[in-house]
Every structure is written in C-alpha cells, then in structure tokens.
Design a protein that fits this description.
This protein is mostly helical. The chain is about 40% helix and about 5% strand.
Length: about 130
Amino acid sequence: MRQIVSAASNVYKQLGSPDGIRAWFEAEGGHRPYFVYKQSLEWIHQHLGTPAMTLQQIRELPTVNSGRWCDLHGVQLERLYGTPLHQRGATLPDLGLRPTPREKLSCLKPDELGSPQFTVEGWLQEIERKSR
C-alpha cells in the first residue's frame, strides 16, 4: 500500500498538486469510519476550512470509542461490523453528537407510511401498470 500511495503521490505532483497524496494507517483497524477521525477533520481543515474550529481545537477534541458510544445510545451495529476490528473499535472525536430519534427522521406523515406511492413496491406496480 505504501508503494502504491507513493507512486500515486508522484503522479499528483506531476499534475500540479505539490503535496501529492498521503495515507495513514491504524494498527488493528479494519472497516472503520475513518472519514470522521481526527486526521480526517484535520485534512478538511487544511483543504476546505473549518470556520467553527481551529486546527488546535480539532487536535484537542476528546475521543470516544465508537462501540461504547453505540451501546450508550442504543445504536445496534451489524454483526459483521460490530466487532473491535471494525466499527466497535473505532476511536472518534467526541463532538457531543447524539442520535436523532427515528420519528424525527421521517419525511412522511403518519397516514402516508406504507402508501404505494411512497414504497418501492408501489413504484414497481405503477411501472408495470403503465407498461401494459
């Protein structure tokens, strides 16, 4: 992996990106949400900006173990990813986030739930009806 990243970085440099690309690795890490790790927040700060936080504030964020956070908030992880190798073992910045209750995520009114016009089955039935 290091060789591939180095070769790709050279191509990026030749194409005008002086920093090329970089990679970092986490020991004992599998499929984890690396896109929310502190290192990712630092990259976002460097390349896109973070108006609400300085780089130092990002680096000083406390961390939380993903598995313990999920357990505390009743978030069930899939069996494959709910292991220390994967999601359960991730170390995330603690931004004070809490899960949004399921009922607040719904964009449908209670009487629209299960209605054929809002289900895949309903859409397929409509397509089949129109194709006759």
